[in-house]
Amino acid sequence: MSAMASIVPLDVDGTAGTDHPVDGIISQTQSMQLASNNRDGANETAELDGSVSIDAITVNTTAPSYDFQGFSSTNKVEPCEDQCKCTHPYFNKWDGGYHCLDCRYRLNNTPEAIEKNKDRLALEAELEKNTPVDVIGEGQSVGSMSAARGVSIGFLLAFTKFYNCYDWNSWDIIRKILKPATEEHRCRVVELPEMASFVGPAKTFISYAQAGKWGDLVAAIADGGADLDRCVWIDLFAIRQWPSDKPDLDFASTIEHCSSFMVVCSYLKEVEETDFEAVVTGQASIYDLDVSVKRQICFARVWCLVEAQKACSMVGMPFIMKVGHHVLGADGSLTFDPAPSNMLQILIFSVDVKKAEATVESDRQRIIADIVAGVGVDKLNSTIRGAIIAAAGTKNGAIQCAACGDGNAIQTLLADPKSIFDICAGGFEGLLTTLLDSAIITDINMKDGDDGKTALMFASMGGHESCVRALLDAGADKDAKNTNDRTALLFASVRGHESCVRALLDAGADKDAKDNDGKTALMSASMTGHESCVRALLHASADKEAKDYKGMTALMFASMAGHESCVRALLDAGADKEAKDNDGGTALLLAPMAGHESCVRALLDAGVAYSTTTGLTTLFFMRITLLILPGYRSIRAMLFSISRWRQWEAEIASSKAPLTSSKLRL
After folding, report:
1. 643: which of 128, 385, 494, 527 is 20 to 30 A away, CA to CA?
2. Read out DSSP for 457-482?
3. Any residues with CB less than 8 A from the CB of 143 and at least 6 apart, and which?
4. 633-642 and 597-605 helices cross at what angle (nearest 10)?
5. Burial class (CB in 10 A: 0-12, 13-18, 19+), 517
6. pTM
7. To 10 degrees, what angle do helices 498-506 and 377-393 make?
8. Is the dihedral of CA 42, 47, 50, 54 positive or negative?
9. What is the pLDDT, as a whole number, of residue 627?
10. Mean pLDDT to the nearest integer, 534-551
């Protein structure tokens, strides 16, 4: 039956059935040195003649000129996880409770523990009291002072190479290097004398999951030929790693004083191996993975969302995401290998900030409430999703270096008209404006060489409203189609970018245009569960009864994929709830077969009559699904309450109907 055919995995750009590997391994795609950095911070800019391609850039990430020789430290106590043997050299302090960094021993969680450890508690209290106080000068703020504590990318490379800590996580870095180095003065790392030559105002705020590999983080930051003298803000170096009654964890105000924002996520085998079709239909989720895996996915942890929301609220701030792992060459060179397409697709379809987790439930509730009251859940979801799409589609990290303000990268991009595709995919409005103001773009509707997408399609696919409007103002064809007959509106709808959908509809885009499978924007949004896009299209009078080449309607797609909110939106708009596909299937047949109880309930609430003409194959499948599988008992119970279930079961069991059709009534 056509309605039950497997959902075809979508490539990262929303197209179906295309083998679209993700490019970006530096050593294979770049051949011209972008910048030669020396210790004085000078950059030698390559001569540009207008014919330079962004695919012709090499990267030197060995940072030989950054002479970092490590930190001096007298504490060489090795971590010990045995509470009976551990000396508890270092403590974290959470909500007033002291936790040993090594063995997790709690110093003051019970009256007995407080009495036993009263001397150590008194010592810790005295140390906290004597923590140096920040003096905020005239014209300064907590945020401006924090943003001034950036570290150069060249230092990060030299630091990582010196300590050979590529495979460590952030907790290892803190425990084995930073705690001992700052123990004497309980200061920030950037305040150590060894750091004097490597600290400066941060241009890029780095957000990452601390459970990820340190080498992945550093390789991502340096990817694309980053200016080694550019300073980035990383919490490990910029904030105190000691309990204090004078905390300096003000991420939001720090971001306000940076000009770009980068999120880094390590490659995760467990995510890549998750079944894509099951994720799309709601039968599997990355949020069901082990907590050790989820802790490495930034948008699955609410504390990372605090930073992401702030960056999302900053108009014009580049929001960059890098997903992949580091590769250490035999010569000591460090490169960044982007994650494979399947992992990126799964991440794109999994973004849902409301499902993010925290160790303390009250923290999770408070942060989600702040997001709802701030930029909004849909906006933040769209921004994160768009950043992952850009990570999947961007072929060269130099684009992101340019977005972070690296001069040589900017000059290179402005010499290549094809850079407009990656600029729009990343949503880098400032770069796009500069490019459009130049004389290099002679055809705003030129198409890329892969599947014929225009710049407007790239911007729409990534959810970048400002770029969409800039391109429309520049005369971009709002109804142009790629090789699969997809328009910008279809790309925006399938990825759930409401603001771009509305911008295109406002510009008069064809709301009922079909791709080569016969799908419209409304079908695409319904299939992927983007209610806000569904409602925007319905408000614009999109054809809710349009069918694809299999006879499927938007309501059928929403029902089959288990998106109750979209089902109810379509029903509220008057969608034909009894419509049949080419094989006679209806929405109420599709929903229970896929196990979507909420959609079954929504359809029954709307008064859908369970009546269909269908083939014997479908009868058998229905019997297997609804009678045997234990996971469908709740759906069966609903049907029992409104139907002649036992009679229907008997009819199936004794059915001798021909293969062509058979009539069922419940």
Report:
1. 527
2. HHHHHHT-HHHHHHHHHTT--TT---
3. 250, 252, 253, 254, 255, 256, 257
4. 20
5. middle
6. 0.80
7. 90
8. negative
9. 43
10. 96
Q: Positive or negative CA dihedral for 415, 417, 422, 428?
A: positive
Q: Give SS3 for 336.
A: strand
pLDDT, position 80: 84
410: tokens are 């900017």
Cα distance between the two ends of the chain? 21
Task: Give the model's confidence band at 654: pLDDT under 50 very low, under 70 low, under 90 confident, else very high.
Answer: low
Least confident of 440-449, 459-468, 597-606: 597-606
Is there a contact between 604 and 591 (Cβ–Cβ < 8 Å)?
no
What order do you get walking across the sheet with 260-266 strand by strand?
199-200, 150-152, 231-233, 204-208, 260-266, 319-328, 334-338
Q: What is the DSSP string of 303-328?
A: HHHHHHHHHHHSTT--EEEEEEEEEE
Q: What is the DSSP letter of 16?
A: B
**Which 3-state string (H, E, C) describes 23-74?**
CCCHHHHCCCECEEECCCCCEEECCCCCCCCCCCCECCCCCCCCCCCCCCCC
Using a 10 angstrom Cβ sphere, with 0-12 exposed, 13-18 middle and 19 or more buried, the burial of residue 398 is buried
Q: Which of 21-25, 88-92, 96-100, 460-464 has the highest mean pLDDT?
A: 460-464
Mean pLDDT of 536-565: 95
Closest CA to 513 of 499, 501, 496, 529: 501
* Bridge pairing between strands 35-37 and 43-45: antiparallel
CA-CA distance, 236 to 532, in Å (whole number)?
Answer: 39
Query: Mean pLDDT over all residues of the chain?
Result: 82
Task: Give strand pairing partners of 43.
Answer: 37
CB atoms within 10 A of CB 660: 8
- For the chain, which residues make up each domain, given as ranges? 91-129
Residues 6+ apart with CB under 8 A from 336: 24, 25, 26, 216, 219, 220, 222, 223, 322, 324, 325, 326, 327, 397
Is the C-alpha dihedral spanning 419, 424, 425, 430 positive or negative?
A: positive
pLDDT of 375-406, one tens digit each?
999 999 999 999 999 998 887 789 999 999 99
Which residues, other chains included, contact 122 with Cβ-Cβ below 8 Å and sequence gap of 6+? none
Rounded to an integer, what distance in angstroms lies between the CA atom of residue 19 and that of residue 391? 17
Asked if 482 contacts 457 with a C-beta cutoff of 8 angstroms, the reply is yes
Reference 592, options 554, 558, 560; nearest CA is: 560
Residue 373 and residue 383: Cα distance in Å, rounded? 16
The three-class DSSP label of residue 231 is strand
Q: Strands, DSSP E only, in 84-169?
A: 91-94, 97-100, 150-152
Q: What is the pLDDT of residue 589?
A: 84
